[in-house]
Prior knowledge:
The protein is α/β, with parallel strands linked by helices. The protein has helices at about 55, 80-95, 110-115, 145-155, 155-165, 170-180, 180-190, 195-205, 210-220, 255-260, 275, 280-290; strands at about 10-15, 20-25, 35-40, 60-65, 100-105, 125, 235-240, 260-265, 300-305.
Amino acid sequence: MNYGVTAPARISQTLLPGGRRLAWAEWGPEDGTAVLLCPGAATSRSLGFAGDLVDELGIRLVSVDRPGLGASDPDPDRTLSSWTTDIRHLTEVRKLDAPMAVAFSQGAPFALSLAADRVVSAVAVVSGSDELAHPCLSSMLEPQVKAMVDAVASGPQHAAASFAEFGSPDRLWELITATVGETDRAVYTDPVFQPALQRAMREAFAQGPDGYARDTVLAMGRWPFDVERITVPADLWYGQQDTSPVHSPDRGATLAHRIPTAILHLLPDAAGSLLWTHADTVLRTLLRSREAHRPSRTETPVEQV
C-alpha cells in the first residue's frame, strides 16, 4: 500500500508581512475545496495524505511547514496566536476561501487555534495531542508525560533547550518504532511509507532542532485560547489501538466534551496512524460536517465506527 502518500503537485513559499517565508505544499486541483493540513511533530510539508483521493473529492490539500521547521523561516518567539496570524495571511494570499483544517498528532493545537479564531470553517483532529497541561487531565497523564508538562510550566526556555537536545530525526524515529503498537508499526515501516516519513523528518530538522522544540513547548503548555469557545464543526478521530502517551490520555473524551461542536469518532480497528489508514472516512466526514448545521451541545455524542 502507499497509504495515499504521493508527491505534492505544487510546492513553494509565501512571503509574510514581516519578511519571513512560510513554506507549503499542495495536492489536488487548484480550484478545489481548501483543506489545510497541520502536520504532526517533527515532520514537514512533504508528507501529505489522501494523495489518491484529493482529485476525486475535489480537495485542494495544503500542508504548511510551521516556522523553524522544513523550509519556513524561524520565528523564535512564536505563539499559537502568531501562527493563526501567519495562516490568515496565507489564506488571503493563496485565495483559500473558507478553508477547513485537518490536524495530525501535535498539529492539533495549531489547527484548533485556527478553529477558535474562525480562520477555518471546520476542523478534523486525527490522533490529536490534547491540552495536556489542562488541570482536568493531570491525573490521567503517564509519569514521563506529566514530567514534560511540568517542565514546560516551570520553565519554558529550559524545557525547550531540553527538547532541542533530544530532538533529531534519528532519535525520534527510534522512539516511534520502539513505542508504537503493531498496527502503527506496519504502516510506518511500510516500504513506501517509511522513506516518505523519514524524508519529512529530515526536512523538518533542516534548520536544526529549535523549531521542533518550540512546537513541543507550545503543544505541552496551556493553550492561549479556550476550546470551549470553538463554534465551527470539529470532528475528533482516535483509534482504540493507539498507544501514544502524548496524544490524548482518554482518546479525546475530555476534549470532545470541552468543545461544544465536537463529535468524537472512536475506531476500534485503528491506531495512531489512522490519518493514512482511514483518510477517505476522515475527509468525507469533514466535507459533510461543514455543510451540516451543528448546534452546540452540552453532551458530546460518541460515534463508534
